[in-house]
Specification:
Number of helices: 6
Order of helices and strands: HEEHHHHEEEEEHEEEEEEEEEEEEEEEE
Oligomer: single chain
Strand order of the largest sheet: 5-6-7-8-9-10-11
Distance between the termini: 102 Å
Shape: elongated
Largest sheet: 7 strands, antiparallel
Radius of gyration: 42 Å
Structural class: alpha+beta
């Protein structure tokens, strides 16, 4: 190995000076360079004692040599800094080559800065080995052994640093590639969504000039209900009349037992709801379950322990009407899956006020009835083919029932639709993400085309996207079993305008 003579002399002089009690002093050296370029140094150690003047001269010489070594080290550091830009360009070039030729992988062994440090440590290791071979004093052997261990540890640390940096860089590069792929996928989905979206502005509030539900947006988590996390069941939303006189928001958590509906709050604006200010809080004391809704400033819900429908004036918190729903089951009979005490589920949309329930006659299948919102009389009823306890919830939009089922703890599917205008059923597959496992009190608002859902104590909403009139519902209607009658049964002799009597 070709070693720096000044560096070797520094090691030797340091060795002789750090061993106290040894009468050693350099009196003469013979320097030679063999054919392989190895520098050889022969040191004569006299047996005479060290004089003070000679010691001072030796210390001065040592300081000069240390200064020269520091200058060389400073130049090496400057070289390392000047090669950083070249290293960056080398890395970029290597990854470009790797992208074009996956079999070719760049390594930190091509990095000049790492090469320089590695060569220095290799030289220090060989130098320590030479000193260890030539030293004959036990104290010197111990010191050289310590230095050799330090150099070995430094070499190992450099290797680990290089490997760690290399793998970290490649891991980061893989994550960037994955993110770029996801971004491209999202861009494609966005383009497809834009191409299939309603070509003009969204339907006006209260308008059904569309072809049915196309997509449900991402959940927007507004906040936790005001009573706390233990109140997991409940409902919330906006007035579901198509043209409300005010932007009224309501929140009605059930008690911790998931059944008893006793308190609710009203907010005059979205900001008031978010900031929990300017609200009215009322106690009612006779609600049952989370199937309630608000329509034209009246709240409709199941009266506790009965099949009765109740109507409360929100301006005064006064029960203004109570009427039995003929044939409806109650007291948790045929409730939604994982959502107990939802035997009567009220809904409002562009076509009016509805109630969703089951009867013994329907064998637990979901029944749809449109109500007169003034008298709570049933105007017309439709029978679906869906077993109500197998559904996780349902809502109405433009006279179409949309039913949900749970796919996992984080996703639901709108899989079924029933059009009350045509009495036709449809299979759908519209995914709906959720924050927590159970959805309660699903309410649709025609004013802003949103779903308002109470999700295990949290208030969340979803934007709805509708098909164009030309597209309509994308799937074929479900064929009714042979021998069955029409799924629509009028209660009154005459049907409302625009409705066909089956």
């Amino acid at each position: 190995m070709q070693s720096d003579p000044a560096l070797l002399a520094s090691f030797l002089l340091l060795l002789f000076l750090v061993l106290p009690g040894q009468p050693q002093l350099v009196r003469g050296t013979l320097n030679s360079m063999d054919e392989s370029g190895t520098f050889q140094c022969v040191v004569h150690l006299p047996n005479s004692s060290i004089f003070l003047q000679q010691l001072e001269q030796l210390q001065s010489t040592l300081q000069d040599l240390i200064g020269k070594y520091e200058q060389q080290l400073s130049r090496a550091k400057e070289y390392t800094h000047t090669t950083e830009d070249q290293d960056s360009q080398t890395l970029e070039l290597s990854h470009m080559l790797e992208a074009r030729n996956p079999g070719v992988t760049a390594s930190h062994s091509d990095n000049p800065a790492f090469n320089l440090l590695r060569l220095k440590l290799d030289g220090a290791q060989e130098l320590a080995a030479q000193l260890q071979a030539k030293a004959g004093v036990s104290g010197a052997m111990e010191l050289i052994h310590q230095l050799q261990n330090q150099v070995t540890n430094a070499s190992l640390a450099l290797k680990l640093l290089a490997d760690s940096d290399y793998h970290s860089f490649h891991t980061l590069q893989e994550e960037v590639d994955i993110l770029e792929g996801r971004l491209s996928e999202c861009e494609r989905e966005k383009e497809q969504e834009q191409s299939s979206r309603y070509p003009g502005p969204p339907p006006a509030p209260g308008s059904c000039t569309h072809g049915g539900l196309q997509k449900v947006g991402r959940p927007l988590v507004l906040k936790l209900n005001w009573r706390g996390l233990q109140y997991k069941a409940g409902a919330w939303g906006r007035d579901s009349a198509p043209n409300p006189s005010s932007s009224l928001y309501w929140v009605s958590p059930l008690r911790a037992d998931g059944r008893y509906f006793d308190y609710y709050r009203l907010h005059k604006s979205y900001d008031d709801l978010v900031l929990l200010k300017h609200y009215e809080q009322w106690k009612m004391g006779y609600g049952d379950g989370s199937g309630n809704t608000v329509y034209k400033n009246f709240m409709y819900f199941n009266y506790y322990g009965t099949r009765d429908m109740a109507k409360v004036d929100l301006s005064s918190n006064t029960l203004v009407l109570r009427r039995s729903l003929p044939g409806a089951t109650y007291n948790n009979r045929f409730s939604y899956a994982a959502v107990p005490w939802t035997t009567l589920d009220f809904a409002g949309d562009e076509k009016g006020l509805w109630v969703l329930y089951a009867t013994e006659e329907s064998k637990g299948n979901l029944v749809i009835s449109r109500l007169n919102d003034s008298t709570l009389e049933v105007e017309q009823t439709w029978y679906t083919s869906q077993y109500k306890p197998a559904l996780s919830g349902a809502f109405m939009a433009c006279g179409v029932l949309y039913a949900l089922r749970s796919l996992s703890t984080r996703q639901e599917e709108i899989f079924y639709a029933y059009d009350t205008t045509t009495s036709l059923e449809y299979r759908l597959s519209i995914r709906l993400d959720k924050m927590l496992e159970t959805l309660h009190g699903i309410n649709y608002c025609p004013w802003d085309h949103k779903l308002y859902v109470y999700n295990d104590g949290f208030l969340i909403n979803y934007d709805l996207t509708f098909l164009t009139l030309q597209e309509k519902l994308p799937n074929s209607p479900i064929k009714k079993p042979s021998g069955t009658s029409a799924l629509s049964k009028p209660i009154k002799p005459t049907s409302p305008p625009g409705q066909e009597t089956p």
